[in-house]
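fyi for ur records
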Amino acid sequence: MHSTIDMAGRLVIPKALRDENGLSPGTKVSIVSRDGRIEIEPLQREHSIVRKGRFSVLAGSSKTAKLTQRQVNESLRQIRERKLD
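which gave:
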């Protein structure tokens, strides 16, 4: 995928990449320069695992926050580790 930096220095991240990484307007990101590359990474959203009845559920800080597949997988891993303890 390609994009162009505009006159104000802004870069549009293609929609497919935004969707894949759970980026929406207002999402805070970390931007670093490493080895001649620019890396953009979404900052962690605040969420926790809480019990609802007999189930463990993921509770976010915002009802509109979308979770990435990576966040879902990490949460499932944490739940499974707790069951093994």
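The longest strand covers residues 29-34. thats all i got for now
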